[in-house]
Recover the amino acids of this structure.
C-alpha cells in the first residue's frame, strides 16, 4: 500500500513539474491585455467553445437551422459587437486580429451552409472555424 501511495505521489509530482516546464518553454507570442479585458476575452473564448459544442449537437440531431443560428449569433460577424472585438483588437498583434476576423467570417459562412441543409457541406465549412481557432491558439497566448 505504501508503494502504491509513493508511486502515485511521484506520478502526480512529475505531471505537475512537466506542466511548469512546458509553460517555461512555450514559444507562442505573449499578448498583454489589461486584466479586465483579458478576463473578458477568455470568457468570450469559453463561450466560443460552448457554441461550437452546441453547433455539433444540433448538427448531429439534423437541426441545421439551430446550428446556423448559434453560429451566426455567437461566433459569426453578427457576434463581433457583442464580444467587444473592436475594443480588444487594438491590443492584438496583426496576426491575432487576422485569425479572429477569419474565424468570425468562417462562422458566418458556416451559418449560410447550414441553412442550405446539406450536413456534409456544413461540417466541411465548420472546420474552417475550428482551424482559425487552432491556428490562433498555436501562435498566441495571454499568460
Amino acid at each position: 500500500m505504501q508503494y502504491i501511495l509513493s508511486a502515485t505521489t511521484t506520478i502526480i509530482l512529475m505531471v505537475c513539474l512537466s506542466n511548469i516546464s512546458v509553460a517555461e518553454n512555450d514559444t507562442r507570442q505573449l499578448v498583454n491585455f489589461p486584466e479586465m479585458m483579458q478576463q473578458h476575452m477568455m470568457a468570450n473564448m469559453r463561450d466560443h467553445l460552448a457554441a461550437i459544442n452546441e453547433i455539433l449537437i444540433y448538427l448531429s440531431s439534423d437541426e441545421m437551422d439551430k446550428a446556423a443560428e448559434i453560429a451566426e449569433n455567437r461566433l459569426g460577424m453578427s457576434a463581433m459587437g457583442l464580444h467587444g472585438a473592436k475594443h480588444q483588437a487594438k491590443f492584438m498583434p496583426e496576426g491575432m486580429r487576422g485569425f479572429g476576423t477569419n474565424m468570425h467570417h468562417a462562422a458566418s459562412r458556416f451559418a449560410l451552409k447550414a441553412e442550405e441543409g446539406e450536413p456534409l457541406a456544413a461540417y466541411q465549412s465548420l472546420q474552417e472555424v475550428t482551424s482559425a481557432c487552432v491556428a490562433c491558439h498555436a501562435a498566441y497566448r495571454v499568460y
Observations:
- Residues 28-141 form a domain with the Four Helix Bundle (Hemerythrin (Met), subunit A) fold (CATH 1.20.120.10).
- The helical segments are 2-24, 35-60, 64-75, 85-89, 94-116, 119-139.
